[in-house]
Amino acid sequence: MHNPHFECQWPLLPLPLEASKESQKINTKSRDRMASWSTSTPLPILLGLLPILLLHPLTTTFGIRLGIVHRSSPDLPIFREAPSFKNGEPCGSENADGIHVAMTLDANYIRGTMAAVFSLLQHSTCPENLYFHFLSAHIAPEFFSSIKSTFPYLNFKTYAFDSNRVRGKISKSIRQALDQPMNYARIYLANILPPNMGRVIYLDSDLVVVDDIAKLWSVDMEDKVVAAPEYCQANFTQYFTHTFWSDPYLSKTFQGRNPCYFNTGVMVVDVDKWRKGGYTQKVEEWMALQKRKRLYNLGSLPPFLLVLAGNIKAVDHRWNQHGLGGDNFEGECRSLHPGPISLLHWSGKGKPWLRLDSRKPCTVDHLWAPYDLYHSSRHFLEE
């Protein structure tokens, strides 16, 4: 059911044409530079450039009001106000030009959410065409005011997700954080978002985008319900238990498909096809069976794989450089995978803001730090 609690869409203030062009030129250069990263570039050079990238938008973007935003709740961090970003010349202003991004809001992850939103705006050619849809189990004024104060010009809505919908369906996994109801909110996106929305990009809160998200948005879905990077070299069998594979009926689940692992933290979803195909119910059926039989040990990922693996639109791996948080137990440091990068994802136990605060960061955590609006320059000054 569509149940928006808050909505915020402000009138956009016009900029002088020269200022708009110059701002867009700078944003384009920054975006192209970040999107061309690869592991062939020496990491010390990358780290040397990061302070410049950190300061870059703060010194070249127009219409900025710097300062500290005072929080209204002791449970939420204090964030700096982000710079404003303006559309480039080729951007349209019709509804059809909008790019819709869905994320969850949680007090423990809101620092990551703010960094993710900042990164999306900074590297977008048409930042004013981005529309954010935030799902939260606790729609509180503090969340709304924190987003509004940090991103005064952001187009966004917040939606209530009733965590009771999944509490009785969640099975205990290998890590407590994976058992939180908000991890399952993505299953219900099609039920929560407006009925006239045809497509949405779902993003986790522990990532940053270093390329124009419009490139991912424009992917040809080829009549598929989900588009995401596939990883067919991964051992797919490890995501399910011996009980699953030894069952003569269940083991035929993937018959006729070539199932590959995909990470549900970055997905383009055709919400119209999702609704019509009853995919929420399909995922829930596997969750119900998991309660009776132990079919997998992870959280919300395996039921997605059971329903969709081998039947999604595969996109370039650059759109999910995942696993930067390490495994689900230790969260040890990991290096970047080979190839170009458009999105960095700290899936796994280790989160960059926690490791930076502990003064024991991994090298890759310094790639997240420039987007941290919570005292964002402190980490560079201290390292």
Automatic annotation (TrEMBL):
Which family would the database say this protein is a member of?
Answer: Belongs to the glycosyltransferase 8 family.
- EC nos: 2.4.1.-
Where would you find this protein in the cell? Membrane
Keywords from UniProt, A to Z, are: Glycosyltransferase, Membrane, Signal-anchor, Transferase, Transmembrane, Transmembrane helix
Topology within the bilayer: Single-pass type II membrane protein
Give the protein name, as stated in the record: Hexosyltransferase
Q: Which stretches are transmembrane?
A: 43-64
Tell me which species this is from: Prunus mume
Known pathway: Glycan metabolism; pectin biosynthesis
